[in-house]
Design goal:
The chain has six helices and eight strands, in the order E-E-E-E-H-E-H-H-E-H-H-H-E-E. The chain is α/β, with parallel strands linked by helices and about 220 residues long. It has a single domain (about 1-215), classed as Ribonuclease H-like superfamily/Ribonuclease H (Nucleotidyltransferase, domain 5), CATH 3.30.420. The chain has a six-stranded mixed β-sheet. Strands 7-8 form a two-stranded antiparallel ribbon.
Length: about 220
């Protein structure tokens, strides 16, 4: 397990991120914030949603997370493509990125889809007061400099850090939701026919393209 600490002081908040995947490819990260500073980061890689939730419960205090970010599609639609994904692709392309970074829900591999929904259900059960947001770390770090800067500050060093890194950026998205960071919006309402298979209404908190100059930095 990776642990990093900082001595900065401010209002405390716990946010959690998950990067669902298959065997030895499910990243988790619990981050304690004081104000906008990540003062303690705990993370690791496991094989399924149940293990990830248990690891988080092992390292956090009795205080539940304020918000949780999950790097997986958390709502589905009847159509071929989600409006939320179209919005992210448009923003990504406007920054010189590749739209293929954001795949179609019906083309993603099973571990991401299944474990993403399972961990969302378990989060809703374990911490019913925690807000849940879908996250897309790879797209976010290409369009939002503060997210990339945040990831560099975490300084993960293990060979399997990719999964923990994405989980950490998912926690960054959760913190943006919990604090209602300027320049971000909820993309979930763009899909009027959205179906939430986890049984809990979730958000898709992501920066808004035409308000990128209003971003609120998280150091």
């Amino acid at each position: 397990m990776y642990v990093a600490t900082s001595n900065d002081i401010g209002a405390k908040m716990l946010c959690v991120g998950f990067d669902p995947g298959g065997k030895r490819a499910f990243g988790w990260c619990a981050i304690e914030f004081e104000g906008e500073i990540a003062t303690r980061t705990m993370g690791g890689v496991v094989s399924c949603a149940t293990e990830a939730i248990e690891r988080v419960k092992d390292v956090i205090s009795t205080e539940p997370p304020a918000a949780v970010g999950i790097d997986a599609p958390l709502f589905w639609t009847d159509g071929n493509d989600r409006e939320a994904d179209k919005a992210v692709r448009k923003f990504l392309c406007s920054k010189g990125g590749h739209g293929g970074t954001v795949g179609h829900v019906n083309s993603l591999r099973g571990a991401c889809l299944v474990q993403g929904i399972l961990v969302a259900r378990k989060v809703a059960f374990e911490w019913p007061g925690a807000a849940i947001t879908e996250a897309h770390p790879k797209a976010l770090t290409q369009v939002w400099p503060d997210a990339l800067h945040f990831g560099k500050r975490i300084q993960l060093t293990r060979p399997d850090d990719d999964h923990m890194y994405d989980a950490a950026i998912a926690a960054f998205s959760a913190h943006a939701l919990a604090t209602r960071a300027a320049g971000w919006r909820d993309l979930a309402p763009l899909d009027m026919d959205a179906y939430f298979p986890s049984g809990k209404h979730v958000h898709y908190w992501f920066p808004e393209e035409n308000r990128s100059d209003e971003r609120k930095a998280i150091k």
